[in-house]
Write a sequence for this structure.
């Protein structure tokens, strides 16, 4: 649950369009705040923007403080990073009303140790990494942790219906979807001594490129 609100300082932004490149060179990230009112253009110091994205993701509430005055409660809707430098290029924030239910995808985190990994030599399989939920903003969990200690063999599985969902949160993802299970270890076919010998004989029957070249050169 979002108990610790993340705070970020911002300034009103007058630079728009392609001119934001100059803004980034000055160490700021352009951002927009929308929802429940007109869209507002703001700018955030690049270092603070990066820290906010890393801490908040798309599930933690953020308080934006504009010029040390007005504050707004938001969720990060989307962000863009530079394709190879990784710098934050832009952030979109969505205003939330604390009395209005939201639909959000919550990340899943596997914790604990699955005994079946040790006994079967298999590998952990996690086909989904998020589940969709609905709740009031203040009740949104940042992450849902899943204890995998119940995975004792290849027949064991954890489904969405098994997740520890808080009472104030409504799960929207199909409960029958598998969240985690153990896959059997892949067994590579062994090569017999006879097959290996046949492979060597077949290889020695073929002339090398150097031998072909030698014949051509002497003819």
């Amino acid at each position: 649950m979002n108990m610790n609100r993340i705070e970020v300082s911002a300034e009103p932004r007058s630079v728009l369009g392609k001119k934001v490149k100059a803004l980034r060179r000055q160490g700021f990230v352009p951002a927009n705040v929308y929802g429940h009112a007109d869209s507002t253009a703001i700018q955030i110091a690049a270092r603070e923007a990066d820290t906010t994205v890393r801490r908040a993701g798309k599930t933690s509430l953020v308080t934006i403080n504009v010029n040390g005055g007005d504050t707004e409660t938001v969720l990060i809707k989307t962000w863009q990073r530079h394709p190879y430098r990784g710098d934050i290029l832009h952030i979109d924030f969505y205003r939330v009303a604390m009395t209005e239910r939201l639909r959000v995808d919550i990340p899943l985190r596997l914790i604990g140790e699955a005994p079946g990994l040790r006994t079967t030599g298999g590998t952990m399989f996690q086909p989904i990494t998020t589940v969709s939920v609905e709740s009031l903003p203040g009740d949104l969990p940042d992450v849902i942790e899943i204890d995998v200690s119940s995975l004792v063999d290849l027949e064991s599985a954890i489904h969405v219906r098994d997740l520890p969902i808080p009472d104030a949160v409504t799960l929207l993802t199909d409960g029958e979807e598998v969240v985690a299970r153990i896959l059997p270890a892949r067994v590579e076919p062994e090569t017999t001594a006879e097959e290996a010998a046949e492979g060597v004989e077949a290889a020695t029957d073929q002339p090398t490129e150097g031998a072909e070249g030698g014949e051509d050169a002497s003819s």
Summary: The chain has five helices and 13 strands. The chain has a mean pLDDT of 86.
